[in-house]
Amino acid sequence: xxxxxxxxxxxxxxxxxxxxxxxEDAKKxxxxxxxxxxxxxxxxxxxxxxxLRPVNLSVTNDGRLxxxxxxxxVNMGGENRECSTVSINADINSLIKIPSPGxxxxxxxxxxxxxxxxxxxxxxxxxxxxxxxxxxxxYEKSFALKTTSGFARELYLTSDLQSFxxxxxxxxxxxxxxxxxxxxxxxxxxxxxxxxxxxEYEGQPVPANVKVLIIxxxxxxxxxxxxxxxxxTTYGKEHEMTANTFLDSHKAEQDNNHWILCTSDPAxxxxxxxxxxxxxxxxxxLTQSNPD
Length: 292
Known about the structure:
The protein starts with 15 loop residues before the first helix and ends with a helix. It is 18% helix and 25% strand. The strands form 2 sheets. Strands 1, 2, 5, 6, 7, 8, 9, 10, 11, 12, 13 and 14 form a 12-stranded antiparallel sheet that branches. A two-stranded antiparallel ribbon has the order 3-4. The protein is α+β, with helices and mostly antiparallel strands. The protein folds into 2 domains: 11-52, no CATH class; 57-273, Trefoil (Acidic Fibroblast Growth Factor, subunit A) (Trefoil), CATH 2.80.10. The chain has 6 helices and 14 strands.
């Protein structure tokens, strides 16, 4: 008799009414979030749709960099590192929609593997001393790097002295991120990548699409990508960025610190870096082809 059912299979037992209400509330909440675009998948799609939107880099007809130029910062990689680009490391928690859609400061950066110009990878060379837009950038002259307007909100690449509370998450080295105000912490300068020729090139125009060092003015540390520090971001596997000078046995900066400020090809065939990779490898030829 103990195995005989005393009720039909369609009889509801337990807290069936409460479970039904909870299920209806969960479905209602889901539909409301979907209508507002607040679902995680919708936020990710919205973020990628805006931050990966193509951007036209500046075209330099004289082969030099100028204030106001829109460029990409590309590292050609090393033994254990592929080619990477300084990129905005924004996730769905960085999104704001009021007063207009965009990313909020402070925002992190990372070295992404994509080298296609877009909102995420484009930076504007900005004067910090009143130099007119369009004037030539020279070695050792201070400048700022800011993101594009609109969704990227014109945030400035910034760094400060390493401390216990303010440092890179993985390496614990000097942190680099994006902020919304331009101060001395956002000042950078370009020096020649060869230490033996650095003094000779001081004050000379900076050629586009050649290897250089990007030095933080306050801390005198060079912008660097860390091949051994992997970040898993919304955009995939990337590397951590920091401001730290890595020297070899000859007291010369290693390839972690070598950057190319990439511009568009004047012929309209994409990036100079992609069209002429062999010329980028030989900085001396490219520099001598654009004499002062």
